[in-house]
């Protein structure tokens, strides 16, 4: 992707000076600055845990709970340790 940037003369000069110090062209240095400033995006295979903001978590949770009204209510016994482990060795 090519992005045109409008820099002031002072910004352009400063960019060129910093690039020269590092033995890079101004374009290469600008690209490195952008790459180092952008947050790393997790791979698409990551779960929602890594990709959602707190606000999105709240929204997703509300949508899920609103869509599951037909789930049975479990008794205290069913969710107790003994109820969960019943039948296990």
What do you see in this structure?
The protein is an all-alpha fold and 89 residues long. It is built from 5 helices and no strands. Helix 1 (9-21) crosses helix 2 (26-37). It is elongated, with a radius of gyration of 27 Å. 0% of the residues are buried. The model has no long low-confidence stretch (mean pLDDT 83).
End-to-end distance? 60 Å
Percent strand: under 5%
What Rg is obtained from the alpha carbons, in whole angstroms?
27 Å
Decide which structural class fits the backbone: mainly alpha
Shape: elongated
Query: Which percent bin holds the helix content?
Result: 40-55%
What is the tally of helical segments? Answer: 5
Kindly report the average pLDDT value.
Answer: 83
Count of extended strands:
0
Topology as H/E string? HHHHH
Condensed summary:
With 89 residues, this protein is mainly alpha-helical. It is built from 5 helices and no strands. The longest helix has 13 residues, at 9-21.
SSE order and pairing:
Blueprint: H1 9-21, H2 26-37, H3 48-51, H4 54-66, H5 81-85
Helix pairs in contact: 1-2
Q: Which characteristics define this entry?
A:
0% strand, 53% helix, 5 helices, 89 residues, elongated, mainly alpha
